Amino acid sequence: QLQLVESGGGLVQPGGSLTLSCAASGFTFDWYSIGWFRQAPGKEREGISCISGSGSSTNYEDPAKGRFTISRDNAKNTVYLQMNSLKPEDTAVYYCAAPAAGYFCSAYVAIQERDFDSWGQGTQVTVSS
User: Fold this and answer.
1) By the 8 A CB rule, do 32 and 53 touch?
2) pLDDT of residue 105
């Protein structure tokens, strides 16, 4: 059974950094792109970043560009999201997700919730002084 478990969230001051982890099990991990999403209170869930199965292709939506870095370690079945220069507006629950079969993370394709069908439980990130 496919399972995704996020960790690494917490409270951080503005300008600080956090690294989120997404541990996967129950499927052939390196065959699949993985995406990161977030949902702030009162807002819809939005795509942040994705990475292809080999790690050779990545994509970042505007909120993440220049501040967040996605990576993966296929030997550990884990995807990471390094977040730097955090702002109060980054406060949200962060989710990792696995896509439906056939999806490939590309820098030319928007990261959309409808392309992903397996989700972790989320990890809370709060940016506040």
Assistant:
1) yes
2) 96
Task: Determine what percent of the chain is predicted with pLDDT higher than 70.
Answer: 100
Q: In what order do the strands lie in the sheet with 3-7?
A: 3-7, 18-25, 78-83, 68-73
CA atoms within 13 A on the CB side of 41: 6
Query: Each residue of 75-121: pLDDT tens digit?
Result: 999 999 999 999 999 999 999 999 987 899 999 999 999 999 999 99
| Residue keyed to tokens 């989710």 | 95
The phi and psi torsions of 56 (rounded to 5 degrees) equal -80, -20
- Give the span between the Cα atoms of 105 and 70, in whole angstroms: 12
Residues in Cβ contact with 54 at an 8 Å cutoff, skipping those fewer than 6 apart: 30, 74
Whole-Å CA distances, 15 to 88, 89, 128: 9, 12, 10
Q: Which candidate, 13, 95, 107, places its Cα nearest to that of 60?
A: 107
CB 6 within 8 A of CB 94: yes
Residue 39, pLDDT score: 98
Cβ proximity of 68 and 83 under 8 Å: yes
